[in-house]
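Researcher: We plan to redesign the surface later, but first we want a full-length starting point. Tokens attached.
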């Protein structure tokens, strides 16, 4: 394995880990990191196959490749988790400016999720 492939694989693993953060942090984007990781794994079929065995990441990659958008289940879960965490954060902070910032972030992330959820023509 060449140094280039080793560096790309390492970068892909870091990007994949950053994408996984989106599972627990509602304002952190998952899709761009997972797609960038897939690009890094293009020269490493073994590593790409291992990532594709993880159902969470496989859904993102297959939906992007096939231009299907996101499943309704994924959209619903994402939005429920996002707004639940934002509501919890707003309640715990109790500061008006924080609540307004969280609402703005929530609207932006919701718009993004709904935009990427739509299927695209080939």
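Model: Full-length starting sequence:
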């Amino acid at each position: 394995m060449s140094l280039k492939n080793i560096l790309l694989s390492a970068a892909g693993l870091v990007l994949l880990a950053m994408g996984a953060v989106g599972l627990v942090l509602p304002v952190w984007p998952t899709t761009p990191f997972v797609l960038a990781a897939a690009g890094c794994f293009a020269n490493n079929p073994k590593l790409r196959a291992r990532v594709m065995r993880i159902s969470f990441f496989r859904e993102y990659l297959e939906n992007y490749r096939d231009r299907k958008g996101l499943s309704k289940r994924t959209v619903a879960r994402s939005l429920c988790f996002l707004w639940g965490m934002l509501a919890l954060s707003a309640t715990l902070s109790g500061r008006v400016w924080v609540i307004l910032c969280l609402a703005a972030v929530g609207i932006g992330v919701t718009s993004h999720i709904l935009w990427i959820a739509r299927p695209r023509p080939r």
